[in-house]
Write a structure and sequence with these properties.
With 241 residues, the protein is α+β, with helices and mostly antiparallel strands. It is built from nine helices and ten strands. A hairpin with a 3-residue loop joins strand 5 and strand 6. Helix 3 crosses helix 6 and helix 7 runs antiparallel to helix 8. It is flat. The model has no long low-confidence stretch (mean pLDDT 92).
Length: 241
């Protein structure tokens, strides 16, 4: 192990010396940040309390449960919310930093990380055109210790750019532009995410991935998309795969 460790340090020093241009420095910063985060995840991979600690410290207090959602919970889940939350207006606010491990994990699995919610996920360091970095992602399915998600990007897909350029050049009409976009089975445009900054984003279903709960940024915002977007994702997944 010592030999591998020293070889790793030598490689990192050599790599650091090649970072001269601004674009290389940015790439290097991203890599070193990824390495730091990856190391933290490896250290805490077998620590059951790691996720619980982050939930209590960051997530539970930042997520309000509205009355509409509360009334549709099972009786046992409502009892958990009653024990650990206070009703203020139309929302239940987390108020118990000594919440039990089991209660915290049930609230997380059944309320916070449910289908249609949007979370921040660290997809890791990308190589070439691979998808990587910290991005919002729509939860498609919860497997308790893992999530099936589709990443969301604020970068407009090149397919859309080409179609919109044809519209700008008056090669196609607005109606044809809309039809062409709808025919792209792999992409869905998301105009609004509840609790997120108002802006247009895109989800590419070819980037669907199963991720560990350790990849979640627990201090990040948890939002949700409307049922119409979920239905569109489901339809496109069915058509594409």
């Amino acid at each position: 192990m010592k030999k591998s460790y020293l070889e790793c340090l030598r490689k990192l020093r050599t790599f650091r010396k090649t970072l001269v241009k601004d674009i290389d420095k940015k790439r290097g910063k991203l890599y070193f940040t990824w390495l730091k985060n990856k190391t933290e995840k490896v250290i805490n991979e077998k620590n059951e309390k790691y996720i619980y600690t982050n939930l209590v410290k960051y997530t539970l207090g930042n997520y309000k449960i509205d009355k509409y959602s509360y009334e549709r919970l099972t009786k046992s889940l409502r009892e958990i919310v009653d024990r650990n939350y206070t009703l203020k207006g139309n929302n239940y606010i987390f108020n118990n930093t000594k919440i039990s491990y089991n209660d915290a994990m049930l609230v997380t699995r059944k309320i916070l990380l449910k289908r249609g919610n949007v979370i921040w996920v660290d997809f890791g360091f990308n190589i070439g055109n691979e998808f990587g970095g910290m991005h919002p992602a729509v939860i498609l399915k919860n497997f308790d210790n893992e999530l099936f998600v589709v990443p969301i990007s604020s970068k407009k897909p090149k397919e859309y750019i080409k179609i919109e350029q044809d519209l700008k050049d008056r090669i196609i009409t607005e109606e044809e532009c809309k039809k062409r976009k709808e025919k792209i089975n792999s992409i869905i445009q998301i105009d609004s995410i509840y609790r997120f900054k108002q802006m247009t984003r895109w989800a590419d279903i070819t980037r669907i991935k199963k991720v560990s709960l350790l990849r979640i940024n627990y201090s990040g915002t948890i939002g949700k998309i409307s049922g119409d977007y979920i239905n569109s994702l489901s339809n496109k997944i069915s058509n594409e795969f």
